[in-house]
Amino acid sequence: MFFNSLDYAIFLPIVFTLYWLLNGKHTLQNIVLLIASYIFYAWWDYRFLGLLVFSTMLDYYSGHKIDQAIGKNKKVWLIISTTVNLGFLGVFKYYNFFIDSLSSVIHSGGGSVQFTMLSIVLPVGISFYTFHGLSYVFDIYYGRTKPVNNVVEYSLFVSFFPLLVAGPIERATHLLPQLQKSRPFNYDQSVDGLRQILWGLFKKIVIADNCAEYVNLIFKHPEDYSGSTLVLGAVLFAFQIYGDFSGYSDIALGSARLFGVELLRNFAYPYFSRDIAEFWRRWHISLSSWFRDYLYYPLGGSREGKAKAVRNTFIIFLVSGIWHGANWTFVIWGLLNAIYFLPLLLLNRNRNNLEIVAQGKVIPSFRELLSMLGTFALTTFAWIFFRADNVTKAFEYIAQIFTSSVFNAPEIFPLTTLALAGGLLIVEWLGREQPYALRSIGVKLPAYVRWGFYYTIIILVFMYSGKEQQFIYFQF
Q: For 46, what's the count of Cα atoms within 13 Å in the CB-facing half-sphere?
């Protein structure tokens, strides 16, 4: 079930009504949410519901065994849970990739080996719910939390439908306490949730899906276009992936608020970042912080000298690339971001920009503007590898950019789409001190202006809803 579908528009109010009819009975409310979450997941493909339940029960049981174990037995149960979880992820997501890569290496050396490829579908959301469960068992192992005894509460933590298929990647220490207590109805919280859902729909349907139409056209046959058109295609993809994924996150957070639940923030205006380090503190925050806490810090972080800090940085970026997809394009994308990050790390400048850019000001300084444009350019260049079908096509795309045709007028110039993207940037800039941009309008402007803006967004969403496309991160 997609957030931008009619099915979800019917599903959400039904669940909302049933949930709040049980106001004050949080145990029953949790059961309603769990059943709704399984229906939500099974709507895509009921055959993979068993895999979700198995993964949930594995980590629920492992959490208790880790807590009860003494000495080395704790690590044994941690290894069992991690191995099985990553094993499923490896088979469904990476088996064919690694077999194909191994086969290519052998053939390039003159060998001839036939490997069996698996004809399987990647279960939607497997990367996300696997990481939910792993964070739980890791936190128990490191003593950050205790295992939960209520299987419904734990199952809901893993499979809560707003975050189930594309995050944010939640932590047991953040979400479980909310599920273990009563959640009285809060009118302001629900209104805020609806407002954030609306903004998410705008970013997905009006911005991302609009950009996707031109991105698909340009990336499919880059040889047919000038360098300037390819630059425009890369910029449009930057807006597409941001509108798509941050739009999903807004809908997820807004939907959760309707049930009195606050999820982790996943985006904080990343395209206003002044360096790559700041970008990664603002883009897909739940994943970046997951890798920081469960991979970077256990490897030693930056506490053991620059050499190991550099090593650990390359490890987390390469793992992040692989996490995003079984393709060498994602590996190169991760490697590029590690290279971007390296000078900041070596010069101890990776934590220079912690505050909101131009906080309290209407416009940034010239230096801030140049820093933001430079960071956006580096990010957009890396996005070419993220979007390309394979490495060869990515390099062909880039090679075509660096020709004299980059100075020609673009063959494709979607003025309306670019104007809408510009409008998005303006609203996000004005609202950058709020958790999401539309809240600024909801808080600061008079009612007649506010409602006029809401209705404008609603009209635009309906106008462009015919271009419905699957969320990009569903494939991860």
A: 2
CA nearest to 398, candidates 385, 416, 413, 412 = 385
Looking at residue 47, its pLDDT comes to: 86
User: Based on the domain organization, do 379 and 249 belong to the same domain?
Assistant: yes
pLDDT score of 111: 65
Query: Is 324 marked active-site?
Result: yes
CA–CA dist 55, 51 (Å, integer): 6
Do you find a cis peptide bond into 168, omega within 30 degrees of 0? yes
For the segment 348-362, the average pLDDT, to the nearest whole number, is 93
Do 226 and 357 lie in one domain? The reply is: yes
Asked whether the beta carbons of 1 and 8 are under 8 A apart, the reply is yes
pTM: 0.94
One domain, residues 156 and 192: no
Residue-wise pLDDT tens digits, 241-273: 999 999 999 999 999 999 999 999 999 999 999
State the Cα–Cα distance between residues 197 and 253, nearest whole angstrom: 8
Domain-located, residue 291: no
**Number of structural domains the chain divides into:** 2
Query: Shortest CA distance to 154 belongs to which of 73, 47, 227, 63?
Result: 63
Structural domain of residue 366, as residue ranges? 188-274+353-475
User: How crowded is the C-beta side of 291, counted as CA atoms within 13 Å?
Assistant: 20
Whether residue 366 is found in the same domain as residue 384? yes
The residue from 26, 132, 284, 324 that is catalytic is 324
User: Is there a single domain that holds both residue 33 and residue 126?
Assistant: yes
- CA angle at 471 for the pair 18 and 376, rounded to the nearest 5°: 125
